[in-house]
Amino acid sequence: MTLISFVVPAFRVQGYLRECLDSILGQPETDIEVIAVDDCSPDASGDIIDEYAARDQRVRSVRLAENVGLGPARNIGLDRAVGEYVWFLDGDDWLAPECLTEVAERLRVTRPDVLLVDHVRAHWNDTATRSAMAEVFPEAPGPGTFRLRDRPRAMHLLHTAWNRLVRREFLVDLGLRFAPGWYEDVSFSYPVLMAAHRIGVLDRVCVNYRQRRAGAITRTRGDRHFEVFPQWHRVFHLMDSWGPATEALRPAVFERMIWHYLTVLGNGQRIAPELREAFFAQITADYERWLPPGGYPVPDGVEGIKHKLVASGRWRTFSALRAASRARDAARRRARTARRTVGPVARRGARLTRDGLLREYYRAELRRPVDPTLAVYAAYWYRGYSCNPAAIYEVARRLAPEVRGVWVVRRDRVDAVPTGVEYVVAGTPAYYRVLARARWLVNNVNFPDFVRKRPEQVHVQTHHGTPVKVMGLDQQRHPIGAGRMDFAGLLRRVDRWDYSVSANSFSTQMWDRAYPATYTTLEVGYPRNDRLVTAGPDEVRRLRAEFGLDPDEHVVLYAPTHREHLPGYRPPFDPDRFVQALGDSGRLLMRSHYFHDRDRRPGQPKDWERVRDVSGHQRVEDLYLVADVLVTDYSSAMFDYAVLDRPIVLYTPDWEAYQLARGVYFDVTAEPPGSVASTFADLLDLFRTDAVRSDAAEKAREHFRARFCTMDDGRAAERVVRRVFLGEPGEPSTRC
């Protein structure tokens, strides 16, 4: 018999599900199965599950035809489980490395009905908060088992399904199922403990409980939080049906119920102000209905006062107490803020330089009406006219001519703006004016921190590549590559987004995880790649002629990415030896990363006729179109160039160091878009032998394109313009 069956329901967790499944499947203990249930998720969760099931026989995929909710989805997984123990793990949480070794050993030695394990709350800023384990068990609980009546304090551990493993036969004999609705853990976790004859505790952190910024019910306001009441009613109905066996536990269970109700009520992110009085009234009603005849242990201090106010139904006094407490906390926060800012405020008058005056001008412009016809575009920190914003701008001029598009560029990049394109120079009064008054703000990176999001404004984040390297909050786990990033500031910028443009499902999943916020994802393909799809042979010939390339020349584009952890790094690459390997008809175009546009120091190849530095060329799409082969490393260029269905070679001389220092989302050397060379000698051999066009390389590219390029059909920019500028509904989802 399999030892542990993991049941993993999935609904809107595409950004986290891979980490969850990897954390299970990567454990040393392999006597497991994973039943992953796609609860008719509207995102790619089901596709991810199928992907894992296809490559690991321990994973079983269950796709539901309609959304049933977390509780029923767990029941469906339970019905398919065959393991001796069942572990219900949520799809956005993940296991601690190697924890399963200790879990499995404890299960095999003690055979408990329920094994409780420890957890931490994993916050977005890469910090963790310990659970109440140390308070509940101030002395190590040891390997022995117990009944709840002997240690009722065990109920003070978080009442979730994922911090406990339950013996499956015990659960089936008990007939306990998850109820539908929110707070479904309540009517499962407490009854399981009350009915168990053998409870074990493993004082080892096993679960990382993700504290999501967006999407969690604990951060969602609404009347569905009233569903906590029937879940607790179910607990007491079960106790009534079980008779004297659990009667001694009733006072402790009652105290937990009132504590839980007050916790939900006290969370301002759950119960809206207009619903709090009704919620309080229901607490009072349940207090009267379920109060044990002999009373219960009322907590001390302020919490005890709250219990007494609930018992007497004194909402006004309770509300006033809460308001006073919040006011006191707010005053303390203001005092701390004042102490931190008194110095900067005092120095402000002496620092009203030109930039300061312009910021004052910006704030004044914010008080003027938004221009309903103005759209502001920017790319790569104002480096010029390019990328996805440029493609959207061009289509908007055609489909929404009433919209006036204005570009923001650096002063040293003005010459790169095409004739007829209106622009403002960054840092000028006109720049601050358009930022303050534009209806639409479109950028492939974030606008500066001072930019304030007005309610009438629409921010469109187009991004500028499918990620290989980790981005956003995920960089916190790779501090060498992250440098001195201000992650709190990053999230403030992300919170301005209304739309996030995604090239493919993989990018959508990674953006959900790296940039958690409430924006709407437009998974439409990359607008800048439209041209790669629509460009015909005539345009390619024209571009080749502009670059001075003959039609019969074999052109290779070499475009490596930069290394944040190694400023000034240059991969070991000898252009002269490379063109020699290409043969007499070979030509090499070399393009450095845009981060090096101000400190570019091109190499000095001897054969300038056959090697050209094209780093200064504004539109990288031109380079893709003229190239017969792309050589890159970890750059997003591979995803764009794959749209053309031409050979791609990955040259990865520092792959192990790069993935360790910078962090990556997947192993591009294991799932490449073509051939892979880890040394320069290997790279030369690929071209000398023409292995870049081998059957294996062709099949790798075919698989890569099927995964990443299906949305690039030449209409991505149009889809963005119709949704964002014209307000047309998006194309309907094909998911259940």
UniProtKB/TrEMBL annotation:
<dbReference type="GO" id="GO:0047355">
    <property type="term" value="F:CDP-glycerol glycerophosphotransferase activity"/>
</dbReference>
<protein>
    <submittedName>
        <fullName>CDP-glycerol glycerophosphotransferase</fullName>
        <ecNumber>2.7.8.12</ecNumber>
    </submittedName>
</protein>
<dbReference type="Pfam" id="PF04464">
    <property type="entry name" value="Glyphos_transf"/>
</dbReference>
<dbReference type="InterPro" id="IPR051612">
    <property type="entry name" value="Teichoic_Acid_Biosynth"/>
</dbReference>
<keyword id="KW-1003">Cell membrane</keyword>
<dbReference type="Pfam" id="PF00535">
    <property type="entry name" value="Glycos_transf_2"/>
</dbReference>
<keyword id="KW-0472">Membrane</keyword>
<keyword id="KW-0808">Transferase</keyword>
<dbReference type="InterPro" id="IPR043149">
    <property type="entry name" value="TagF_N"/>
</dbReference>
<keyword id="KW-0777">Teichoic acid biosynthesis</keyword>
<comment type="similarity">
    <text>Belongs to the CDP-glycerol glycerophosphotransferase family.</text>
</comment>
<dbReference type="InterPro" id="IPR029044">
    <property type="entry name" value="Nucleotide-diphossugar_trans"/>
</dbReference>
<dbReference type="InterPro" id="IPR007554">
    <property type="entry name" value="Glycerophosphate_synth"/>
</dbReference>
<dbReference type="InterPro" id="IPR043148">
    <property type="entry name" value="TagF_C"/>
</dbReference>
<feature type="domain" description="Glycosyltransferase 2-like">
    <location>
        <begin position="5"/>
        <end position="171"/>
    </location>
</feature>
<dbReference type="InterPro" id="IPR001173">
    <property type="entry name" value="Glyco_trans_2-like"/>
</dbReference>
